[in-house]
């Protein structure tokens, strides 16, 4: 027994030693990490309002941008907030898979769509903030993918709200049209975000916000209407209502910070690394998603008699199929907009 204990202690000691050597290993892997730049030293596409410092230099090798997640710059917190959110959602997925039969129970497929769309948007967002600084083309490419992730998450939200949270009165009004309209609004949201980004070089910043916020607002109002109806008919015996209220509160808060850069506007140059509004947007959106996943799971467990009565057997498969179509449509929109970006960045190719 003493030998086993000593071996365990030895392994722990070796692990601690390896952890202590991690900073030195990173330094050896990237011995000459370039310093960050001021906003005036990078192209206009990369500049964020009221953020003056912490921009990474362009045209470095890919290793630099991957390792920059351990460097202090103005995208570090944006990367880690959604990277950690991705890990949290992955753990939640593992927990759900222990009690939910995602393979055989077709009624669980809308919940699966939500979890997969949550993992996708958080992963694409982290990738965009981590790798979008390599070049102008990479900047547009990765952030267009980020917008695809947001749009398909909007549709994933619509699916679980319609399938699990909807009340019978609203279901009678929107049955047959809710999911197709949600898919259309998701594609319009992706188009608006990509177009706003594309026009960011030639139009005022508020135009970009309008292109992003208006379609996303329409999508949110439609996608969340079953939850709003549910909250209106609030019941103290409904444990999921608390989480639905939480997701609405978190979403409205994150929408505020996305639309209005309050903190960096009040303290220009002081929130470049920590504290600017987009970081709060990431944190609040992640909290919104977690509440949404857990609330939908409670609905899946507690309202089975309701949604089995309201939805026909093929609707879950239809929702999954429409998710794939929506994802593909948003990816096609991003690809078309990327071609337009290439013509702006390389105008000589237009004449070929």
UniProtKB/TrEMBL annotation:
Zn(2+) binds at residues 129, 278, 282. It is found in: Membrane. The chain crosses the membrane at residues 77-97, 109-131, 143-165, 177-198, 241-260, 317-338. Keywords: Membrane, Metal-binding, Transmembrane, Transmembrane helix, Zinc. Pfam families: HlyIII. One of its GO terms (cellular component) is plasma membrane. GO terms for molecular function: metal ion binding; nuclear steroid receptor activity; steroid binding. The keyword Transmembrane applies. The keyword Glycosyltransferase does not apply. It is a multi-pass membrane protein. Belongs to the ADIPOR family. PANTHER family: ADIPOR/PROGESTIN RECEPTOR-RELATED, PROGESTIN AND ADIPOQ RECEPTOR FAMILY MEMBER VII, A. This is Progestin and adipoQ receptor family member VII, a. It comes from Oryzias sinensis (Chinese medaka).
